[in-house]
Design brief:
By secondary structure, the chain is of the alpha/beta class. It has a single domain, classed as 3-Layer(aba) Sandwich (UDP-N-acetylmuramoyl-L-alanine:D-glutamate ligase). It has ten helices and 14 strands. A hairpin with a 2-residue loop joins β7 and β8. The longest helix has 15 residues. It starts with 11 loop residues before the first strand and ends with a helix. Bound molecules: adenosine-5'-triphosphate (ATP) and magnesium ion (MG).
């Protein structure tokens, strides 16, 4: 269906290949969590998780045409997660379903005493490889994004080749590594940084990748080789640099329910503005706004599923 041998028409604004899983979130657990006791939560939420899927969902909510590839296991949780993308109008026609292997990944978040435990079973996200990727389909977008580089264990070696082909096909490229659980920051990263148009780390990631102590120094190093770098700085907002120009954009003033997926929601706003031709500072300001919106409900997508809140919060923005 429309994978497009033609190089002229673009079916999608953004194509994404990445992980999908549900977040199971428990709120209000006791601060101390002794073993072998029944600990009671005050609230529970099951919502779409994973950086790549949250971005796909929120980009579509912002009106972008999104094509999404992932590898799903033979389990009901993966289907529920995928349904969230379908509801939002994300194209999932190239999603691969694998029977008999590991199930789709899942994340359990335990909020207790102002802190949280985050427990992830990676499942199919460690298994997705180049055979799951339809390159013609990815190339039928104007822009390609990759999140969670270090969770894509099997896909990672193929990524520099995939990025090169998509770049040759005329797409612009963006990357958000998220954390490296092994804290090595190696593999395909260096090659990919030489290929992307936009890099979207948070402050900690930018510092670890460059070996610098603060976001200002780190962004200077990254911007020497990447056209646009936007560093997410939590409640300090964001720092963006293009060439020699640098802007600091303060965060929106909100009272967050949780900040799960705020970084992915920032990416969604940033990329949406970028694809509408806005300058980098405007993209980061809109990213701050969509990130702040995300903090007003549980998880990374619930604010984008609440039409009233969505409309009201974004109505004063571009
Ligand atoms: N307390 C807050 N108030 C307002 N905005 C916030 C707050 N926390 C985060 N944000 C917004 O969310 C954006 C992304 O947050 P953060 O720096 O935590 O990204 P991240 O670590 O990549 O997040 P993620 O955990 O989703 O990967 C910030 O740049 C900011 O715009
Ligand atoms: Mg992040």
């Amino acid at each position: 269906m429309g994978s497009g041998k033609s190089t002229v028409t673009k079916s999608f604004d953004v194509t994404i290949a990445g992980e999908i899983n549900l977040d199971l979130i428990l709120y209000g657990l006791p601060e101390a969590m002794p073993l072998e006791r029944e600990l009671l939560a005050s609230a529970f939420r099951m919502t779409l998780g994973s950086s790549s899927a949250i971005l796909a969902h929120n980009l579509a909510a912002l009106g972008m045409r999104v094509g999404f590839i992932t590898r799903l296991g033979d389990d009901p949780l993966g289907e529920i997660a995928l349904e969230r993308l379908v509801e939002r109008g994300v194209d999932v026609t190239r999603v691969k379903r694998v029977h008999g292997g590991p199930s789709t990944g899942v994340t359990i978040l335990l909020h207790h005493g102002g802190k949280r435990h985050i427990l992830t079973y990676p499942g199919t996200m460690f298994e997705m490889d180049a055979n799951d990727i339809d390159l013609d389909y990815l190339a039928s977008g104007r822009h390609f994004h990759l999140s969670s580089l270090f969770l894509h264990k099997a896909l990672q070696p193929a990524l520099p080749g995939i990025f090169r082909k998509l770049k040759a096909a005329g797409l612009t490229l963006s990357l958000d590594t998220n954390d490296d659980p092994d804290d090595r920051w190696d593999g395909a990263l260096d090659e990919l940084l030489g290929l992307v148009d936009i890099f979207l780390p948070n402050e900690d990631e930018a510092c670890r990748i460059t070996g610098k102590a603060d976001a200002e120094t780190a962004i200077g190093v990254l911007a020497a080789r990447i056209p646009i770098v936007a560093v997410k700085c939590g409640k300090q907002g964001s720092l963006v640099q293009a060439g020699q120009e640098r802007w600091r954009l303060p965060a929106e003033s909100v009272a967050p329910v949780d900040t799960i997926g705020a970084g992915d929601s920032f990416n969604a706003g940033f990329l949406c503005a970028y694809l509408k031709g806005k300058p980098p500072a405007d993209c980061a300001a809109f990213g701050n706004r969509t990130a702040a919106l995300s903090t007003l409900r549980s998880g990374g997508t619930e604010s984008f599923r609440d039409p009233e809140l969505f409309r009201e919060f974004l109505s004063s923005a571009e």
